[in-house]
Amino acid sequence: MPVDDTFRSDLRAAIEARRDQALQRLHRLVSADTTLGKEQAGQEIMAGIFTEMGLAVETFDVDVDAIRDRSGFSPPVHQDYTNRPNVIARHVPKGRAQGRSLIFNGHIDVVPPGEAELWTTPAFSPSERNGRLYGRGAGDMKSGLVAYCLAYEALRDLGYAPAAPVMFQSVIEEECTGNGALACVARGYRADAAIIPEPFQQTIMTSQLGVMWVTLRILGKPAHVLEASVGVSAITAAYMLFDGLRELEEDWNRPENRHPEFTTNPHPVNFNLGRIEGGDWGSTVACSATMLVRVGFYPGTSLKSVKSAIEANVAATKAKHPGLANIGIEISYRGFQAEGCTIDPNAPFMQVLSAAHRQAVGSEPQRLASTATTDVRFLALYGDTPATCYGPIGGSYHGIDEWVSIDSILSVGEVLALFAAEWCGLEKA
Ligand SMILES: [Zn+2]
Fold first, then answer.
1. Between 3.30.300.70, 3.40.50.300, 3.30.700.20, 3.40.630.10, what CATH number should domain 5-208+341-428 receive?
2. If you measure from the C-alpha of residue 9 to the centroid of ligand 1, how many angstroms do you get, rounded to a whole number?
3. Ligand 1 centroid, distance to 39 Cα (angstroms)
4. How far does residue 259's CA lie from ligand 1's centre (Å)?
5. What digits encode the pLDDT tens for the residues 137-151?
């Protein structure tokens, strides 16, 4: 095992020498708009990078029929999975595999940028300011994809390669269903550990909340505004129903109702009214409205019980307000149906990752109980592969002027290289 002080300082130099290349790659990736349905442009760039790394590349479209009946499946919000492939690349050791195998996973999709006029520089025109790179996906999580490639190449620069199989996955739909990662699990991809470099400030994730997307369609009774008192506006009804759901949110946030991993966060469970549409005429009481609500919930809570709680809450709100008596409410579930999960901080791979962080960063890593979901759940719950997130420092994910610290990408590359060296062992490249 060649990992000693000399190796570590050579590794740091190798990482630093690839700074410009890493940045160029991140610029190219962020320049590609990879919002839902448009992932292909980014995946072509990833396939190109994997090829530059000397790895065998495979691409495949998500086959809904192969995952529909699997645990973790979420009904798609985008029906067509053609030409939106997952891309994977494999490192196969030259000698007999000696170490433990590894999956590096990351997602290519990004969330929509929001209003263009609010961005200091355009969302898909990456721009560097004060050691940060700005742009949609710069942090979440194209920087992570760049970092795991950097880790591998820096080891190669030193004349080494992992002595166990390493798979690199770039998947679609982490931001709405996770069906990209589920398709990888369905193809049988397994490893002794997996790391997803989500941009979680170089903390090590020990748990994540569950997330469910709930669609409520409300049918009111149309009327002229002159007689608005007899008509029920579906838009007003939507707000009343959401107010009711917020009581459930507050209930789940009460100290006595919390999961032990989430006791210190001031408000771990969040319900978000992310989208609403309704009505059709300025002088007509709105007769329909549809709202999309994102619901968070604790690990260990079943999807079934979350649905029951939501449906009971909606029924109670309706019963409480006479004005809602004549409206129809349809509840459906598309997009995230994501269970929460916890990760044993004492698992061997977590210990190795902590040690790699200490060596590269020089401090004890912080742990993270994430209030968002990630693709970790597929690997850990349904893919027989212990998994966590560890990735760069940044901010404004899903917001305006998203950014990532450029230095932290290099630091994460270094940590992941040290992790791979220890976990997989090394052979002469
Ligand atoms: Zn992400």
1. 3.40.630.10
2. 30
3. 14
4. 23
5. 999 999 999 999 999
